[in-house]
Amino acid sequence: MSRLRALDFGRLSVLAVVLIGAVAVLTRDQWDWVFDSDEARTQGVSAEVIADVDDATERLYRISPGNGSEVGYAVVERLAGNEQLTVGVTTVVAGDIVINTIDPTESRLGEIVVNVEMFDSDSNLRDKRLRRDFLESTRWPFARFETTSIEGLDVEFAEGTSFDISLTGMLTVKDVTREETFSGTVTIERDRLVADVFAEILGSDYGVGPIKIARLAYTDDEVTLSFALVADRVDLDSVADTDLSTRFPADEFADGAFAGVVQPIIEQKCVSCHTSGGPGWDTVAFDNAGQAAAIAADIALVADIGYMPPWLPGGDSPAFEHDWSLSDEEIAALGEWAAAGGGLDVDPDTPLVARAQSIIPIVEDQVLPPRDGEYVGLRDENGPVLVDEYRCQVHEIDDPEGDGTWVTGFEFRPDETTIVHHSIVSIAPAAALDEINELAGADGRPGWTCFGTVNLRSADAVTIQGWAPGQSPTRYPDGYGIFLPPGYVVINQIHFNFGAGETPPDDSEIILQEATPAQRSTIRSITGSAYLTPAEIPCTPEEQAIADEREATIEGYRNLCDRAEVIEEIGEKYDLFATFIPDALIRRCGGTVDDYDDLDGPIAYSSCDLRARNVGTIFSVLGHMHEFGSAYRMTLNPDTPEEKVLLDIPNWDFEWQLNYDLVEDVRIDRSDVLRFECWWDRTRVDLPEPRYVTWNEGTVDEMCFSSVTVLPD
């Protein structure tokens, strides 16, 4: 199972749905449901055997792994902009069928069990990621189908005749059980039974679709699940061969040209992230040549569409430091290698060693854990009380000399990345300590609830950093840093999202790189400002019609396509302050709500021209949106001869929100104008109910947030 954890990522989206494909099967009381680790125990698991068979009137047929049965899924996938029908199958299926030859209506279909870890499609990488991220097979290695009724057997039995049948029963995938009906045919012969049945289901019913992975793949919600079952007739006293243990086949590699061209590319652009302990290792590992060759076609695909390495700036952007994108020649070389079979001319165990670091670490002079311990989300017997929680944690700075700390590098290191949505880091003076200590732990849990700001009354807190998924450690240029005065503490506001239902303890840390004594004598403070642009994404006309119809027919239905209702809901979820933000941003940018309230199609747009607030040379720029985001642009002095694009991201990805350091020196002062533009696509997120989306911090809210960091003269 270590191979399973190490390999998985990329062209996967579609498959997620597959997990539904597991469709056929599972019975939790047939195997050890206790885990000592994240690996499922799937050894020695067998399907239930039907024992009460009347030899005079009934025949026993048995489905055994590898005897020709298949459980499959088919779903429409748009992968890298191309639409295709993706299919996957597993042959690890087992179960018993009893046919009554005197009265076929008395026939019985036993519980069918499938090992869902064995789904196989045309993509190694897809299958590997499916197992962990979508099927979550370390927790739910099996699925089950338990038949409750059979229709179509109310006919006279005849050897070799095909019958049209429908099977209604309870389908369990992961922890969701729903009634489904499969239709098709069954042919009964003396020594073998063959059944082909299928059902159309919705991935969303089982919490597994539709799959949407920005810049890579999207799937429909509708999934076709098929059972092509082959059951051999067995004697009543025969030993059941229904073992469903996991059997991962060993990877096989053809001969191919790897060491000369492909290996240097992977070691230069991929390995630093995708190596043991690296930030991308748990998605896909490139510890050795065999791991790369096993997913050669997937590597070529994600490289060709620019999905990996994840460098988002488009052609209108200026040059940035640490550009880890692939050249056209490198992309072509990977494609040629994959097209030739993705083979190896080295031993598969040959280690891959990073030739360059895409993510450059900082010196860990101080590692600041949360002062009051790890945080666990608030929950009751039904799970998390809130989907989105905003919690302020205190981190104490070690300052033995009492003369303050010059920080030349900064990193927020999230502990539980599945629940940490973003972080805003501030510093507060000693004058606020009494209030901080009064707030922290007042509700019996570390830290305190805070939204928008750190909610201090006694003294001002100053924001110094932020974090969103994909950000690298920040290294300030030589001669610049941030000064943390004596007695100050760090307050880290973390947005936790518990939408998956889990509330694992989080122990996120803050890392500081300090100036050396020699640097302290000449160092200066780096400056910067945040710029906010309205985020207004109305319902489409189709969504509005759905919400209006539900409001008219469902008592108590809250129509969240109404902006006023959404603003009111935001106040209920967060606080009164949050309700003022959307309108305040619109006014500041010189507009009205009417500028945004009509949406013809799924794409929404917002822009704002604001005066620059700092004087000096631009060091880095950042754009931030949530998961509806589709494109972003920042322009200096737009519509003038001096117009210059500072950041252009034509295809937004929430998972990669970097600070981009400019290569060239670009001057800025308070007479300059900055234009910020954001585009959102409502099809990128599936909402449980149609809703107007506006500015705020929740996962179903949006932002158009920008920052410009400046080196003062």
Question: Describe it for me?
Answer:
This protein has twelve helices and 37 strands. The strands form seven sheets. An eight-stranded antiparallel barrel has the order 1-4-6-7-8-9-10-13. Strands 14, 18, 22, 23, 25 and 26 form a six-stranded mixed beta sheet that branches. Strand 4 (93-100) and strand 5 (108-109) form a beta hairpin. Helix 11 crosses helix 12 (576-588). The longest helix is centred in the last third of the chain and has 13 residues, at 541-553. It is globular and about 95 Å long.
Summarize the structure.
With 713 residues, the chain is of the alpha+beta class. The protein contains twelve helices and 37 strands.
List low-pLDDT spans: 1-41
According to DSSP, the number of beta strands is 37
| Lateral strand order in the biggest sheet | 1-4-6-7-8-9-10-13
Report the principal-axis shape.
globular
Tell me the domain tally. Answer: 4
> How far from one another are the termini?
56 Å
Share of residues in strands: 25-35%
Average per-residue pLDDT, rounded, comes to 86
| Count of DSSP H/I helices | 12
Question: CATH superfamily of the largest domain, please?
Answer: Lipid/polyisoprenoid-binding, YceI-like
- Class from secondary-structure proportions: alpha+beta
Query: According to CATH, what is the class of the largest domain?
Result: Mainly Beta
The major β-sheet equals: 8 strands, antiparallel, barrel
Radius of gyration: 29 Å
Helix content bin = 10-25%
